[in-house]
Design goal:
Layout lengths: L2 E14 L8 H8 L8 E14 L10 H16 L2 E2 H4 L10 H12 L7 E8 L5 E4 L3
Parallel strand pairs: 1-3
Antiparallel strand pairs: 1-2, 2-4, 4-5
The chain binds nickel (II) ion.
Amino acid sequence: MPRCVVTRRMHFNAAHRLFNPRVSDAENERIFGACSNPNYHGHNYNLDVSVEGDIDPVTGYVLDIARLKDIVTERLVRHLDHKNLNLDVPWFQDLNPTAENIAVVCWRVLAPAVAPARLAHIRLWETERNYVDYEGT
Ligand code: NI
């Protein structure tokens, strides 16, 4: 049975502040610079969600991409879009919302939700030039 990887690009806007409460304000400033601005800043995130699986002989799909869109919207995007990640999103209550950590959260939320496909790859774009890849390791 041929296997394919299918990718849907999702989008959300969110604010955050990079901050580690276990080090001093001065150390946060040194590590994170303007990203640690106490009044937060925003990003237009893009999230590429890739699932892998056999092509279903009846539908010709690995996973109906409209269904993939609905799963990602319902499980993930509606919890992140137009939110302050530090203040509004429980997933980041004790987790610094770097692109790396956001990608890991996205993986953990989505991995159980895409059966019978398998979550293969997450790419989180924080800016047009910066992205993080995660594959669940
Ligand atoms: Ni930022």
